[in-house]
Amino acid sequence: MLSVYIPIKLYRKEVHKMLPVKKASEDVIAEFNKWCAEKKECPSKSNSNGLSQSIDAWANALYNASGFSDSISYSSNWYESLSDVEILSRLIYGEATTSSNYATEQNAVTWVLINRKNSSSFPGTLREVALQSGQFYAIVGTESSTRNARNPTMGSVWKHAIWLACAILTTSNESDYMWLFGKPIGINNQVMFYASSLAKFGKADGLMTINGNRVKDVAYAGIGEVTTIDEAEKNASSSRNVYYNYYDYS
Question: 132, 117, 215, 202: which is closest to 168 by C-alpha?
């Protein structure tokens, strides 16, 4: 099993702890919760407010951690030694970096990850979903397509991506997700998305197509479902993804 180390900066600047983190996200959470219990600095997760505060504590610690936000040089396996939470943070950030409405787009990308994890058509863990070959190009793509994920810029966009990654690794309860960050308008069970400015919209057999594939449940996050090519093209922009399912997806 792959082992890495995540340095976590604690609230008192003079105190640092290196937490050993195995590949499984449960180990990350277990170590963090153990430290919380020992130091009594993290709230209980026995209620919704406690859950949110615990996620906030973890996300803030990671955001301020030495090394967590460092740039990474490209290689075909540049992500392999990263923990689950760093992979997911960089994926969410890399797939929704430039939008002025970044929170909505990042929330929608996060729901695609959740929907895939919950589908029998995709791998069963968030790490496996994120690293599936040929899927999330922000992580498994070329040097150019992974540039944003490998070089996060400190600020609210990166911080929100980290927070979302912490949230989906802290709880697997969909009702918690709905309370914590909700579903943007238009987002339901979609497992696919594509940069709308690069998407080629068309029609075949009475159905909308994207890049030649028949699709359904086509939507823009925060806008809603689109049912015509005109609507799809009108709302396309360089900072917006289009979300959908393939027509034959079950």
Answer: 117
